[in-house]
Each structure stands twice: as C-alpha cells, then as structure tokens.
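This follows on from our talk about sequence and fold. I would like you to pick a protein and set down its sequence and fold. Go ahead and set the record down below:
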Amino acid sequence: MTPDNQDTHPIGLGLIGSGSQGRYLSEAAALSEGVAFAACADINPEAARKAMAQCGYARAYPDTESLLADPAVDAVIVATTHDQLCPSALAALRAGKHVLVEKPMALTAADGRKLVGAARQAGVNLMVGYTLRFMPARVLMKRLLDEGALGEVTHIIAGQCIGGMGGWLGDPARGGGPLLYIGTHVLDQVLWVAGRPAERVFAEVNRAQSGVEADAMITVRFGGGLVAQVCTSQTLGGRYGWIDVLGTQGRLRAEWESNVVSVESRPVEAYRHLTEIHVPPTAYLPATRPDATASLTGHAYIRMWGAELTEFLASIREGRPPCVTGEDGVRVLEVTDATFESGRTGEVEDRENHVG
C-alpha cells in the first residue's frame, strides 16, 4: 500500500490475536474510511471465528503464517499476549506488512529494536498502541506544554495502578505484571511530556507471590535536570492513573479516564489561577464514518482506539511515520529494562547500559 493508490484501494487489514483486545481494535478500525477487513488469525479457532463474525473479516486462519501469506492483507494489528507480540509483529514486518502492535511491543528493548530494524528494512510502518496519547484531555495537556504554559518543565509525578492481576497477566514468563501492562502507558506519557531521552533510572520493585511485581516506584532523570517519579501497582482495588507536571511557570494535572485538565499558568492570563478545563469527550478526535456501526459504541475507549487506528491507516496512505513510532516504544522498554535491573540490584541504571 503506497500513497499513489490511496484514493482507489482500501487498506486490507489483518488481525493477529483474535481475543477481546483484538476485536476491540478491529471495531475501532471500522470507524475509519478506506479499510477492508481481510483476515484474522488465532491459535484458538473459536476466537478467530468470533472475530470474523463480530468484526467482518473475510477469512479466519488458525495461524499467523497463513494470514501473512494472504495477498489481501496490507497491514496487521497484533494484539496477542505480551510474550507473543514481538515474534508475531516480527513475522508480519518481514512479510512486508505494516504493523500496529499493542504495547508494550516486546518484553525487552533489545527485542523492540529488532522490530524497528525489521520495519526499516521492509520499508513499512510500525506503530505502538499507546492509546493515552489520543485521550482528549491528554491531547490538550500536551498542547499546553508545547505552547510553554508551564515554562520549563522541572518535575513529573505520575502513576498507573490496577487491582490484582491473574491469568497470563500474573505469569512473568508471558510478560505479566503491572509494569508491562499499565506501567508502560504512564512511562510513555512521561517520555512524551519530557521530550528527551531518559538518562538514569532507580527503582524499588516489590514482587508478588506469582513472581511478577506487586508494585514499582521508579525515579527517572532526564537531561537538563528534569526528574520524573512514577508509580505502578496491582495492589489498588481498581484502576487509577494520573500525571502531574510542574514547571517554572505553573503546574498541570490530568487523571485516567477523566476529561478534566487542571492548570495554573503564569504566562497564560486565562489560567493565571488554578483552573479546571472540562474537555469535550470528542475533542481532537477524528470524525467517524457516517455509516459506522460498532457493537462497542458504549465502550469508554472506542473513540480513542478509533483515533489510534485512524492515525495508523493515515500514516500508511500518506507514506509517513505514525505519531507513535517503534522508536517511541523502544524508549519505554529501555526504562522498563532499567527498572527491573535496578530493582534486582539496588543500583542506579544509566544510559551506558539500559537507558540510551
């Protein structure tokens, strides 16, 4: 799929991993124009059949290889368990398919770099599914920061917490645990806000009986003296996330699943005193197809997933990198690598080994 045929050919979409998240993302893709649901695959035949029926895929395959051999597939969504994200995405990239891979994209930065290299070699797009970047309140947050509303950012304090994690998410061999599941979301937000690479990481990591982390407290130092403190945990009764950004000219706060941004800004007269901005839930989101239907329209994240898929598809048509690149995903994994190692050794990890 190239920019030359963007007006006449829909993008043939494939799905690797036909569980609930794969189906959510597929229905979100249906909100966009110019997409054809070519094929889905899953090692569980029932899951593949369900995705075909629910999402309108033309064919269902029992394995990734068969799907990637289908000439109708131009791009794929990879929505497997964490341990299968990298091998599945790598196979798709080597087959010349554009790839939207769910976060965290891989278990380690080294594996993430393999995906980036394969995408470059094949000349295809690689996007990582960091959905928080598409939440209207977070879009406004980033715009205010880019406009200098806080002056120079000096501190970021953020977290992402959840209740107890079971199933494969409680299995360390499969990439379970809150750091890779929800912690990567908040780390991506921190790196997005910081706008520069991490230089040093120190972490305290407590382990649950299953072997995955119960919680992690992470300090990340960036160039210019910027410091971030990040918490991720599975000891909370439910989901809770936040990001506080402090600068030389003000402060800002946004919370998980909230359309409110709190801001105090000395350079911006309208926000000279602490102000709550109620962001419309559809602000900054692309228009959906007039004839779009989705059984998930009541789902809290469907419009954000839709924006994510719209960006992925647009980047393919326009022949440009997506707004969340594979390199962005690697930078997050460099911090998670350093977090695990610092938690193990009690030492600070710097850019010469894990963070670069």
Notes: The CA atoms of residues 163 and 238 lie 5 Å apart. Residues 133-284+333-350 form a domain with the Dihydrodipicolinate Reductase; domain 2 fold (CATH 3.30.360.10). The first helix runs from residue 20 to 29. The longest strand covers residues 198-207.
